[in-house]
Sequence to fold (121 residues):
Amino acid sequence: QVQLVESGGGLVQAGGSLRLSCAASGSIFSINAMGWYRQAPGKQRELVAGITSGGRINYADSVKARFTISRDNAKNTVYLQMNSLKPEDTGVYYCNTNARVTSWGPRYDYWGQGTQVTVSS
Fold:
């Protein structure tokens, strides 16, 4: 099994910054993509940013030029630096990873418990 532990959420004023971290642990054979999703009240969960093991990155249009995703493969950790935060960035942010626990098994998606980000106007 793979566990994801997120940290770094909180309350910040518009224009401020936060840095989220997510560490994967457990019986991990390999990790492919890691990413961050968010879910605002009354809305569907959406992709914020993702990064592959090879470093290919994609962002939601709404966060481009404000958020930066990075990862430390040696630590199985992904980060999300969020700058110039807006009230519409408010939501629960979930870490996601696509990983194998054995060399012969399939990849599965794993999710963190979520961390609240609230941006006040």
Observations:
- The mean pLDDT is 95.
- The longest strand covers residues 30-39.
- The radius of gyration is 14 Å.
- Residues 32 and 53 are 5 Å apart (CA to CA).
